[in-house]
Structure formats: structure tokens, C-alpha cells
Amino acid sequence: MPAQHSSLSGRTAATGIGGALTAEKAGTRAHTPDALLGMLNDMCCRAVDCLPGVHGAGVIVRFRGAPFTAAHTASWVRTLDEQQIEYGDGPILRALRSQSVVACSRGDLLARWPALAPGMADTEIRAVRAEPVPVTHQPAGVLVLYSTTVDLIVPARERLLPIRDLLATALTEYCTAHPHEDHAVRLRRALHTRQLLGHAIGVLTARYRVTDDQARQILTDRADQEHITPASAARAVLREHFGRDSSTATDRPHHAVIPPRQWSR
Fold this sequence. Notes:
By secondary structure, the chain is α+β, with helices and mostly antiparallel strands. Helices cover 55% and strands 13% of the residues.
């Protein structure tokens, strides 16, 4: 079963998911790419925590050009999301284009989009739900939910709407703060930096048997000592470990979820 975040669980128990998100909403600002990406990731984790039967979640955004995955709870979620983007159709893109919810079982998905069958063949996914997240009445994002235990994801309205509304608010605030910029370019750059840092932190935790926070501090200290950015420090760590700075390191999921079979240990 998905792991629970203790801080969220305690807050939710006291006020309910709607109350917790409403109270938090007033102090939330997503004016920088990193702040926005952090919020999107947090909302994905909250969706898995708070929506029964949901074991994976992702956020796909589109500004200029092709849509892309901006947040996900696990690497297998990103793989399934990006398969649909590469194919050019599927629940995610259908929800984005139509601005309507697309919910289907595994059987329905494979019947409507048979080209997605190879990617689904070795997974335990039984249901997908794609919720459009508009920004100023324009299609800009989709919250996609995956289940491995139910055949149709039908979340309670009072649990889903606060998450979806906060996503819409975050995207709207970011776009409003940067009205003349190419949002896709800035977010892709920030995503690349976050992935570099995540990979480097994974290497350091395994190498030195430290926590994520301690590994992050190691990167910060190295960056300060060498007068470089944390991203450059992360590249150096990955070069030393892999011989190059790339994304050969495995994505470390934000959540302990039930993964597709091919990723099971």
C-alpha cells in the first residue's frame, strides 16, 4: 500500500483534506519554476495519499509545443505518461484537448488506444483517470491518476476538487507572474536541474549511507567550497560515479507505490 506522509495525515485527520488545502492555499506562491515544480510534486503525492484506490499520479503541462510531464510520484508513472505523449493520443491528451474528464479501465484503455498495449503489457495498472486543469480557461495541464486495485477511479468530489483547484491556482499564479516568457523552456530547465540533484542525492545516500537531507547538504557544501552551483556539483558527483553526468541513475520515486511488474524487485 502507498506510504503515508505523517505531516499530511495528521493535518488531514484534524481538518479534512479540503480544509487542509484551503488553509494552505493562502500562503502558497508558485512564482518560480522550482517552486511550481515542487508544488506540483506535492499535489501528486497528496493525491496518492488522499484518494482511495490511487497508487500513482502525475501532472502533464502544455504551454508552447508538446506537452510534457512536470511531476510524478514514481518513474513508472512518468513512463506511462510519456508513452501517451509520444503516441500523440490517450486519456491524458484526450482530456487536455477536450477539457473533459477521461476515466477508463484497463480494458477500455486498450480497446480505445491499442497502440498503448506494448507499454501496458507488463504493468498492473487497472484504471486511469485524467482530470483537465485549465489556466484562465485555456487547456494547460492534466492531473492523471493510476490505480492497481480498482477498475474505475471515481474519487470523492470533496477530496479531488481541493487538489485540482490548488493545481490550477499554482499554474495560474506562475503564468501571471511571467506573462511574456516561454514557460515550457523555463520549466524544462528547472526539471533537468531537479533531476540532476535527485540523481546525485541518490548516489550520495547509497555511497555514504546518509539521509536525503544530509546528502543535499553535502552537495551544498561542495558547491560553496568550489564556488559552483548545486547543479554543477551534482554533475560532478554523477561524473565521478557513472563516468558522465547523465540520467543513467534510476529515478527515485516520491512514493512507495505498487509498481508495474517489470520494475518489481
